[in-house]
User: Which sequence fits this backbone?
């Protein structure tokens, strides 16, 4: 199928912007000039420019024309799933423990709860090709309906656990990634040396009001962890 002419024009202008031939906040040639340059009607040019406005490559100023937007080249988008960050194939999880506990000071702070609030803790060991790769621990303030039976919880992600409390469309995650040396407890669980660094991927699940409704950490030996993302063009 032939590519529409307006799309060819938008592709060409997009390339000029992303390669720096049109700098941020610089004006594009007028619609009449572009019509002559591409040998098309002004309507076709306008359609191509509107595509780039919708894609946030351009912005328009009434009476002045179209201008290139500043392109962010340092933003990346990645899809996060606890098992997907583990290298290899044939990935699986094994439930270690599900328990209801009293919160310590850190949990009271991270989950913004009262000291008498019960907390569900869920621990998993993650494997790749039958080899131990990571340790995952999640903390969720107890609510009626939360799955705490082993057959119900092997292996579901953070949003899926909380879906019984609120819609997944009403929550968002904050994720931080750092590298550190493992504690004695983590090195024992992962069967690694205390001098072997681990990735620590911390998640905090927030509701619509920005209040925490879940907190967890994934510990993965540096040789077993892979995080990939695609650059995001735009503001």
Assistant:
């Amino acid at each position: 199928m032939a590519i529409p002419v307006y799309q060819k024009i938008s592709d060409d202008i997009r390339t000029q912007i992303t390669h720096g031939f049109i700098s941020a906040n610089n004006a594009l040639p007028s619609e009449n000039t572009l019509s002559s340059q591409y040998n098309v009607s002004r309507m076709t040019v306008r359609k191509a420019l509107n595509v780039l406005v919708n894609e946030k490559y351009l912005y328009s100023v009434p009476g002045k024309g179209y201008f290139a937007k500043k392109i962010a080249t340092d933003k990346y988008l990645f899809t996060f799933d606890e098992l997907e960050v583990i290298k290899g194939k044939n990935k699986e999880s094994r439930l270690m423990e599900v328990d209801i506990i009293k919160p310590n000071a850190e949990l009271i702070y991270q989950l913004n709860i009262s000291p008498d609030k019960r907390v569900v803790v869920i621990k998993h060991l993650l494997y790749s090709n039958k080899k131990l790769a990571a340790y995952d621990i999640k903390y969720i303030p107890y609510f009626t309906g939360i799955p705490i039976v082993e057959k119900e919880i092997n292996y579901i992600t953070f949003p899926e656990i909380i879906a019984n409390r609120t819609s997944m469309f009403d929550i968002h995650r904050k994720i931080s990634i750092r590298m550190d040396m493992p504690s004695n407890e983590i090195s024992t669980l992962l069967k690694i040396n205390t001098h072997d660094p681990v990735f620590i991927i911390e998640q905090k699940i927030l509701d619509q009001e920005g209040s925490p409704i879940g907190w967890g950490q994934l510990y993965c030996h540096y040789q077993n962890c892979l995080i990939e993302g695609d650059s995001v063009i735009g503001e």
Remarks:
- The chain has six helices and ten strands.
- Residues 5-18 form the longest helix (14 residues).
